[in-house]
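Predict the holo structure. Ligand: guanosine-5',3'-tetraphosphate.
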Amino acid sequence: MSVKLKKEISKRRTFAIISHPDAGKTTITEKLLLYGGAIQTAGAVKSKKAERAARSDFMEMEQKRGISVSTAVMSFEYAEKAMNLLDTPGHNDFSEDTYRTLTAVDSVLMVIDSTKGVETQTKKLLDVCKLKKTPVITLMNKLDLEGMEPLDLIDNLEKELGVECVPMNWPIGKGKEFKGVYDLQSGEVHFYLSNRQDKMNDVQYIDLDSEDAVRLVGESEIGKLREEIEMVHELTPEMDIERFERGEITPVFFGSALNNFGVQTVLDAFVRIAPSPGPREALSRVVMPDEEQFTGFVFKIQANMDKNHRDRMAFIRICSGVFNRGMTLRHVRTGKDSFVRNAITFLARTRNLVETAYPGDIIGIPNHGTIRIGDTFSEGEDVQITGVPNFAPELFRRARLRDPMKGKALAKGLSQVCEEGAAQLFRPLSGSDYIIGALGELQFQVITSRLMVEYRVDADFESIPRNVCRWVIADDATKQQLIKLYERDLFYDNNQNLCILSDNTFRCNQIADKYPDVRLSKIMEQQ
Ligand code: G4P
């Protein structure tokens, strides 16, 4: 195995940020880019309110996409490491996209608003991390506001999320009096000398017992801090890297993304403790990152990345080996080999052609309708990386075409839009309906708008009495039996997987009782 490959793997940190809307994900993303040297000044977040107001308007969203989507993956160098930060959509209706992005990372930054504590969306997202045992680093954000007491925040996180917390630093004051943090590992005080939001802040590192510390922090504050430190050491566990890597504990940092307090500390934590790319489960074996042969899987498909390139992009997370421009890759599901000349990487906001990429890196390749989420690419081996799921939608609508001559365009549009995975297309075993399933209302508005703009199809969606979806996992003979008995309830998804769409769970329970060998699943993984 090449030493170079091993070195490149150990350099990589591939992570995503999760949070409840408004906790500060966009702000911290921007600040990480600032500290990572990928941007020179921060401040783009200022216009976010206007953007938010327009989020339900897809046409507007499209206009903004040049920025918001091309930043779906941001790569930058920091402390001699190659950082790949994968963005996740903030809106709940796109949560499926977020869940799948989490399958492509090796660690996660969880941002909590310290004035609110753990919120619903954080909980859901953390559940996905737990399922995958993804290591999570926590930032208690907005310490510059009068929020909950630090110990109460830790308590709240442990109770709500069921993960043990290991405070890595401790805030000195909060709200207007937030002056810095005490590093519980090194025993140093990080005192914030400036308070700039657009540029990096000056920090003075001082010994807790020094005169400078007393002078800068204040005598009574230092006394209070010493008591708190003693209590924290007594009440919380020691940092244990193996438990962190198994997702059992989360190291917790306090800071303020807006004021750049603690941003560098968080980046340093990713360098120091976050894991580099690890092994990946495949159907037949485990794929190790340092294998010479390339493997990677598609975790996201995105249309309209750029108005100048009306293409769809498949995002591939590299799991093993080296990607070299012009190499031949096998699309394992179809068995087809192709030269990949035009793969791109995402350095901050620009698209660059990739010459070489390593495990943990994300490359984008143009997709002309043949690539699906969950597909594996290899150098010829018939290997299928697992763990990239589709989640059962909860809302179902039938597409209604206004111009009957546009049937073909509707089929193409729905099929292509659903390839991106934020909504799913279902077809009845008999009949010509197009049923769309999604996790959020907004998806239907988005699809209506995209059908019109991209496919010139005037269509809308009507409600249907179905709200439960379960994939049927069974052998072919049993599936045929079920099809004879329950034809009206059975559908094929866009990947020809059989599933039940029903108006309640009664039909599912009935089948489960009658056929113990049939598994009805809320999650479908590429087979
Ligand atoms: P999101 O992506 O998680 O939805 O959150 P975002 O970063 O957009 O932040 C939500 C709001 O919280 C923004 O304010 C942002 O400025 C603010 N914020 C983020 N981090 C901090 C922090 O450390 N301290 C304080 N005090 N505020 C923070 P907004 O009023 O919605 O937008 P804006 O008008 O300030 O741009």
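The chain has 15 helices and 33 strands. The pocket of guanosine-5',3'-tetraphosphate is lined by residues 19, 21-27, 45-46, 48-49, 90, 141-142, 144-145, 256-258 (CB under 6 Å).
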